[in-house]
Each structure stands twice: as C-alpha cells, then as structure tokens.
Amino acid sequence: MEQAASVNSDPLQRLDGTGRCVQIRNWIGFWLLGLCNNFAYVVMLSAAHDILEKQESRNETASTSASLHVDFQVGNSSNSSIYDCNPVSTAAVLLADILPTLFIKLFAPFVIHKMPYGVRVLFCAIMAATSFLLVSFSSAVWMSILGVIFASISSGLGELSFLSLTVFFSRSVLEGWGSGTGAAGLIGAFLYSGLIQAGLSPRITLLIMLVVPIIMFISYFFLLVCPPSLPQWRTKETEYAALVSEDRQQLLDSSDDEEPESSTTEDQPTGPLSFRERLSVIRGLWRFVLPLGVVYLTEYFINQGLMELLFFHNIFLTHAAQYRWYQTLYQLGVLLSRSSLRWLKIRKVWILSVLQFLNAVFLLLAVRYLFLPTVWLVFAFILYEGLLGGAAYVNTFHFISKETEDRHREFSMAAASVGDSLGITVAGLISLPVHTYFCSL
C-alpha cells in the first residue's frame, strides 16, 4: 500500500523526495536556462548595432556598442538640444525588439500545449543560433533586423515555455529561473564588452556566442531531472488519452463488489483546458498581470524615454559612459532582486508598481527641470528602479504558481508572461513623443 501511495503521489513531491542533489541540479538547470534565454537576446542586439554601424559606414567605437541595447547612439554633435539627444529615440528599436515577443505571448498560450517541451526547447535553441548567424554574416540591414526578430521569438517563446515548465518541478526552481534571467543582462554586457575590448571583431565575438544555445540544449536535456509527467515528446492530448485508457483498464480489472470512485470526474476534470476555461483563467490573472505590466511600463519608460536624457556635462564620465553605467546598475538591481525570492517575498506586487510609477514621475521632473545636482543620485535611482522591476517579476510568478489551481497552473504561468511585454510595448509608444518633445527644447 505504501508503494502504491508513493507511485500515485504528486510529481512535485516525488521529485523533491529524490534528494537534495536533484534539487540542486534542477535549480542550476533553470538558472542556466534563464541565463541563456535572455543572454542571447542581449548580446545579439549589441552585435547587431555594431554590424549595422559598419554597413552604414559610421565611425562608432566598439565601446559604445557594449551597452545593453542595440538602439543607443550617444553624443550626436549635430543635435542642438540641451539634452544631447539622439535624432531617433531609443524607443523606436525597443518596439522592434518587443513586438514579436508580445505577439507570441498573446497567442501562444492558447496553442502551445500542442507542442511538447522537448520540441519547444529545440526550436528556441535553433532560433537563437540562427539569430547569431544571421546578424554575424549579414550583408544588408534587413538581415540584421531579421536576426533581431529571431532572437525576440526565441526569447518570448522560451520565457513562457520555461515558466510553464516550472510547474512540473519544485517551486524553488523559480528562484533559479529568476536569478538566471537577472544575470543575463549583466554577464552578457560585460562578456561582450570584454571580448570587443580584447580586439575581437563583432562577427567573431558573435560566433563565439553560439555556445549559448548549446548550453541551453545541454541544461534542459542533460542537467534537469524531468518528472515522468512532463510531456517531453508527446502532446498533452496524447498524455491525457493514455491516462484515460489506463483508468478505463483499471476499472475493468477491478472487482464487481468494489465501488470505483469515478463519480468525482466532474469535480476533477481531465484533459486539456477548453478555450472557455482558458479565458476564465485569464480573467483571474489580471490581479497579477496588471501590476506587473505597470511596473514594466514605468520601468522601460525610464530606460528608453528618460535615461538617455539624464546627462551631466563636464564630469569625469562621457555621455556614453554615463549611459553604460546606468544600464549596468539597472541590470545589477534586476539581478539582486530576482535572486532574492528565497529571503524576501512580496505578496502585494501593486505596491511595487506604485513605487516604480513615483520613481518614473520623479525622474521625468528631473529631466524637465534639471534639478539633480550629481550623477550619483541618478545612479541610486536607476539601481532602485532595477530592484523594483526584478522584485515584481519573481514575486508575481511565485504567487501565481502558489495560488493557482493545479489544473490551471501551467497555462497561468504562460499567459501571465504577457504582462511585462505589454508594459514594455506601451512604454515604447509613450517614450517616442516624450523623447521628441525634450529633444525639441
């Protein structure tokens, strides 16, 4: 009887019961998956900027391209604005970066269950590798843009898939995933910058980065200890059909005097969620998605609409160096807060959205009236911004995983991932006119 009970126990409990070694392997596996999922995107964008500059015959230094986004060109001497603006807002490329991801996150949760996880990971790794190759060997602008799109697809599909994947494991793997995604920006920026400073060309540097999709492949297929319930190469429908067939066989084999408890089927339905059920789950997720979206809206409004304009003249850092330090400190804050779930859990994520909104309003006023006396204060606010954003991300998905019904959890994790992308998209749309206004002063 004890053996039967252990066989039929919850897969998460079975997985946790196999020992601390398995937990450590899975934590490291999800950390690497988070790192690889975002790392390829960050590094490829920086390299795309370098190659586009070369194609357009612009004389930019390699250090400028080491920033975390493709879209930053600093110190345009032809601009007469007091803010030393770019002619084109950084938000313009942000929109090109985020729209493919947003499209995937909006529609994939309704059909992605038809694609087993093993196939998804292979697809994401192939798309990431293709983006590296396209941008590396691009001979025209459209090839580099296509590489950006492929990286965005890989990142978007990977994020919703790996978040859904966490429901098959101990809840602690969310800590590993969050920390890994936070580390991607910081490690990616330093590694790419270091290789460029060492004298390697952007093309060679990018080809070296092909190791990242390989690490993703190894982390998933060889490092993770996947439970038997995971639909690795078969669809959900196949899994459920096998379970139903097995249950029917057990009923046929049971004795006539035993009363099977099959009448509870309506209370605990099996099979994939219907479209109506998915819509119902989405309505219940808005209490999580809306605060997350607000945090990311205000966060990326700061990053893409204000950060470039927070420029201090006649100090020890150039405009380019100031921007790179802003980005580095932002990513450091994200890394620290995304790694903090083990020690600090914040149930009321809406508090973080309010604080981030106030942070954005303060920095907007600082840009307009130029009252901040030193760059060190901006450094503090940017670090604080990253801390709020990272904390909102990991706590949102932790409490979705904790408070959602077992049957809805996998879909909920995928569907809720649209929150940050929606916020980023709206931030890009708002940042465009704001940038234009300030640069016209």
Distance between the termini: 78 Å
The run of helices and strands is: HHHHHHHHHHHHHHHH
Largest sheet: none
Give me the Rg, rounded. 24 Å
Name the overall outline. Answer: globular
Count of domain modules: 1
Q: Decide which structural class fits the backbone.
A: mainly alpha
Number of strands: 0
What is the CATH topology descriptor?
Growth Hormone, Chain: A
- The CATH class is identified as Mainly Alpha
Continuous helix count: 16
| Strand composition percent | under 5%
Q: What portion of residues is helical? A: over 70%
What does this structure look like?
Helix 4 (about 90-105) packs antiparallel against helix 16 (about 420-440), helix 7 packs antiparallel against helix 14 and helix 11 runs parallel beside helix 15. The chain is mostly helical and about 450 residues long. The chain is built from 16 helices and no strands. It has a single domain (about 10-235, about 275-440), classed as Up-down Bundle (Growth Hormone, Chain: A), CATH 1.20.1250. It starts with a helix and ends with a helix. About 70% of the residues lie in helices and about 0% in strands. The longest helix is centred in the N-terminal third of the chain and has 36 residues, at about 20-55. The radius of gyration is 24 Å and the shape is globular. It is found in: Endomembrane system; Lysosome membrane.
